[in-house]
Amino acid sequence: MGASDYPFYKDLRVRVVDTARREINAKTDIAFDYEEIKTGRKVTALRFRITKNTKAATPDAMGGDPRLGRLVARLKSHGMTEEAARTIVQAHDPELVEWAATDLARRIKGKEKIDNPAGWLRSAIEGDWRPQPTLFAQDQAQARQSELEAEHERQELEAKTANRRKADSAHEKAAIMAFIDGQPEEERQALEQGFREHLAARAIPAFVAKRFEGGLSWCSDPIIRAEALAYLGAIRPDFPTVTAPDISNRGEALQGMDGG
Fold first, then answer.
1. What pLDDT is stored for residue 253 in this prediction?
2. d(Cα 122, Cα 177) in Å, to the nearest integer?
3. Average model confidence (pLDDT) across the chain
4. DSSP 35
5. What is the greatest pairwise CA distance in the chain?
6. 3-state class percentages of the chain: helix first, strand second, coil last, to nearest 5
7. What is the spatial distance between Cα 200 and Cα 207, in angstroms, rounded to a whole number?
8. Distance from CA of residue 51 to its chain's centroid?
9. Which of 129, 173, 199, 241 counts the most CB atoms within 10 A of its CB?
């Protein structure tokens, strides 16, 4: 069996892993179960737990599952023996057995001539006669799954980025205001005047530059805060090092400045 035989995890789980679990748990002195390990929403690994099988020798290998009991009864209603029906139900995916019994009932109701219903059921189940999706349908399903995973990853990245920007913004504001508040009055006024000249030289939009009035307005919006970091870091060696955000795209900064 190669990786290409089961491109979708659900097919691998239903047709290989679950089938093996039913057969091993029903017929051997060991039993196993498994846990799906996920990366985001995608199953990327399976963790198996193997134990001693204390139920294999019990009379009811159905494990008390009423659905399996009903499937055995459906197979028997079409002429299959109790032993054969139980063996098939234990060894195959319940959805496959359910499909085969339903499809046989549909054919019989439609007056289709089936000489040996029990034999037809066994062949349909063991050969898995369920209609298979076309390659095109498989490609579409894979593309939809990839799109969903990509969208989920994008949303997670955006959330992480937003949280990081929020934390960075709070850190920057604290650093700027702590430095400004720690200066003598004359020095604060000199810094404010120099910063106004800095804003003019940097061709900051007038409606943004007018928002700077000293005091808390050092952090009045993202553009002013970013320029303040650059200005104070350039003229004052004693200003603490703070990583300034990228403001090369001022259009983006202007759109988000009301939330900064």
1. 42
2. 79
3. 83
4. E
5. 105
6. 65, 10, 30
7. 12
8. 31
9. 199
| Token output for 84 | 């054969």
N- to C-terminal Cα separation, the chain: 56
Tokens of 80: 């299959």
- How many Å apart are CA 96 and CA 152, to the nearest integer? 32
Distance CA 124, CA 214 (A): 82
Q: Render pLDDT for 56-91 as a digit per residue (tens, 0 to 9).
A: 554 555 556 788 889 999 999 999 999 999 999 999
Q: Which two tokens stand for residue 259?
A: 């939330």
Between CA 104 and CA 96 the distance in angstroms is 12
**Which one-letter amino acid corresponds to residue 208?**
V
Mean pLDDT in residue range 211-217:
89
Q: So what's the pLDDT on residue 244?
A: 45
Q: In one letter, which amino acid is 259?
A: G
Separation CA 195–CA 24 (nearest Å): 77
DSSP label at 17?
I
